[in-house]
Amino acid sequence: MTDIDEPQQEKILELLQAEEVRHDHLDLGCSLYHEVWWYGFILGGREAIILSDGRILRNTAEMVRLRNESRQIGENEISQILSYKTSLGDIAPLISRKTVERYYTTPRTEKLINPVEVYNQVRDRFLYYMDFSGQDEVADVLTCWIIATYCYPLFYWFPHVLINAPSGSGKSKCLSIIRQLSFRGFDIGASAGVTPAQLFRTLEGNRGCIIIDEYEQVDNDTTKLVNQILNASASKDAYVIRSEQIDKQWKAWKFPIFCPKAVGNIAGINPTSLSRFIAFKWLKTTSEKGKRKPEREADKKTFEPIRESLYLLILENFNKIKEIYDSIDLPPELKNRDEDNWSPLFAVARFIDFFGDVSAEKGLKKYLSSYSEVEIETQDNTEEFFLLLHDKLPEEERYYTPKEIAEITEIGELLSYLKSPPHWIGRKLKLYQFKQVRIHGTRQYLLSKASIKQVVLERYYTNTMTPNDTNDTQYNKRNLTIPDGVSLGVLGIVSPEGMRDTMCHFCPTPAVVIAKLKDEFKPGTVLQRPLCESCLNEARKRGALIDQGCQTTI
Questions:
Q1: Contact 100, 50 (CB under 8 A)
Q2: Are 444 and 508 members of one domain?
């Protein structure tokens, strides 16, 4: 038997009994052993962290070569609290040095932040820019989620956000607000194509909130990568396997990918990924809020003080949120994955409600009361449904049951993929706020050709910029697929007196289509239907014969 080196044996046993070193991130984190929270920043060109107990720790260590020997000078004070391998990336904002100074110089017995005031500031930003189709409780849910992004390592599971809504409804605007309010928010630009190496390097130095807009435009290779991250990364222990060549040898290692994520698209998302999301869906609107742009320089500056207040909010209160989260008791309807998704938000809501006359939790519950009806689908037939309904309804106004509408042959065929078309129809009519009554226990909706036409014109065929659209172009450029047998022209055949409330015969869709219709403006062509001013001028240039009905422009 080989003699045992007792000192070596003691060392090995000590290592075997010790816990594996867990690597944290400099951006933010919590040491339960030291009972402190931290945020990372740059001080004097070197990495530093501000701790919730008021201390600032720096890494001034560096290797220098003296007389053919490498020596370390300086000290890494940060290693007293955490073990880390990564540095701080500069792709997203860090806590400002002014905020660090403010916290550093304030006695811990004094409070810098009123939680209710910060909550209202975040909520008001959403409501100032966004029209949530009358569902202001959406702002409560998003506000709780925003606050939670500043302390998400407290939670074992953190949900993604999905905004699934039609073009022009304000998805990009809302994601812009999320990016500017959330912890180190940044857009990875997935719709423009991003390589795996680029994405992982970005994540390595930034554990902030990832924004993925226009997700349906992501190419195939990027889609696989992003799907992998979305499916795995809601859990605190989430990772993907990365392979890299080190010293001419390929080595595989775990790459942690846990951080907040917000996604916007029209086409929906795969069912596996969807269970990791809290989803939102709202309508296009004609609200004046659409003129407010969060990306303008003056507007951007209004977000900065709110972000800094959110840093201070968590530095002063992370332990209270953790305490609530560890003993959270959720509404009974939240089970399994829904319980995981909503726990962080309810923890934040109850923390906020403790400090004053505010109803954060009430807002969450109100949204949850209709959350099962949020329809995230890969096939949204709402536009075709209303076009068919306009085409099939008589002129006179009367009440209809969803079942009656579902029995219209063309609509039944359109919605044949659904388990219950009447249920889908009822939700749509309720969402678009058609007048309703209960007759013999059955809900009926007041409809007419005119009321359906109003929805079509206001929601889908406006020739001005959609109010919630963040683009500064004159027209919304989405093209629509029109069902067989539906004539958009009938929406524009009216008397000259009603011309200003109608649509142009040649450009009924939101896109500018003059270039596509040049063949129709041949010399000698007789045009009789209403035209907008642009199409009318184009027709005159090309020598078309303008009938009296075209003289009044829309």
A1: yes
A2: no
In a domain, 481, yes or no: no
Q: What is the pLDDT at residue 513?
A: 34
In a domain, 492, yes or no: yes
Nearest to 198 by CA among 276, 89, 39, 94: 89
498's tokens: 């009603």
Q: Is residue 429 part of a domain?
A: yes
* pLDDT exceeds 70 at position 221: no
Q: How far apart are CA 126 and CA 298, in angstroms?
A: 16
pTM over 0.90: no
DSSP-derived 3-state class of residue 36: strand
CB 207 within 8 A of CB 25: yes
Is the predicted pLDDT of residue 475 greater than 60, yes or no?
A: no
Mean residue pLDDT across the chain = 77
Q: How far is CA 241 from CA 202, 232, 254, 318, in A?
A: 16, 11, 5, 31
Residue 1 in domain: no
Same domain, 364 and 388: no
For residue 317, the enclosing domain spans 115-373
pLDDT of 327 above 50: yes
Q: Are residues 233 and 367 in the same domain?
A: yes
User: What would the pLDDT profile of 17-45 be if each residue is shown by its tens digit?
Assistant: 766 556 688 889 998 777 999 999 999 88
Task: Give the mean model confidence (pLDDT) for residues 293-299.
Answer: 92
CB atoms within 10 A of CB 162: 27
CA distances from 52 to 106, 147, 208, 312, 529 (A): 12, 17, 19, 9, 70
Average pLDDT over residues 107-115: 93
At 540 the pLDDT is 62
Quickly list H helices, 275-420: 297-326, 336-353, 360-369, 382-392, 402-406, 409-414
The torsion defined by the Cα of 107, 108, 112 and 114, in degrees rounded to 10, comes to: -150
Domain end residue (candidates: 80, 104, 128): 104
Dist. CA 125–CA 147, nearest whole Å: 13
Distance CA(90)–CA(8), nearest Å, equals: 44
